[in-house]
């Protein structure tokens, strides 16, 4: 199942539960895996490489474009939090906001996400450490504690998680289940550059206190 179809299917489930008002959050990978993965794709260019003419979209731009078409109906509050992680400047246990002047307000539209990505990405130095989703999920959980309602976190990732970070990512999800106000519709991890969802973590509802359902189900797409 391709990325767009998979996301549309998941959104259909949210729609059937009247969750069109879910708060959207995005996180984007800025590790050097974007260079190594590009050796066999995207003509060997960094997956974040931006065409000055705008004629060729990189995998992240294409993903944001497709996701925007599918998820626009969930953006009813005109506030989409977008963060980056894994870059050389940001500490390993933190993320950086695409809207540092007012992080909690986020971007007002998918067009603004696109423009912020286009403006920020050339200024960001990729980090050498492998991607770690634990801090990303914890940041999203902290945001969810401040904003009641249901939340959808979509992580755009350049490569598989290293084994050393799998346990931490899983533990971050379980820890989030302990907060009664943190209710999630979806946590999606979308793999670049082929824009296929190789790993989808679905957290149906973090109201489960014991964490047994927190890891939800795993679906592959190819």
From TrEMBL:
Stored InterPro entries: Copine_C, E3_ligase/Copine_domain
GO cellular component, one term: nucleus
Residues annotated as domain Copine C-terminal: 46-181
A Pfam entry, by short name: Copine
A GO BP entry: protein ubiquitination
GO MF term list: ubiquitin-protein transferase activity
Cross-referenced PANTHER family: COPINE FAMILY PROTEIN 1 (PTHR45751), COPINE FAMILY PROTEIN 2 (PTHR45751:SF11)
Protein name: Copine C-terminal domain-containing protein
Organism: Phytophthora nicotianae (strain INRA-310) (Phytophthora parasitica)
Lineage: Eukaryota, Sar, Stramenopiles, Oomycota, Peronosporomycetes
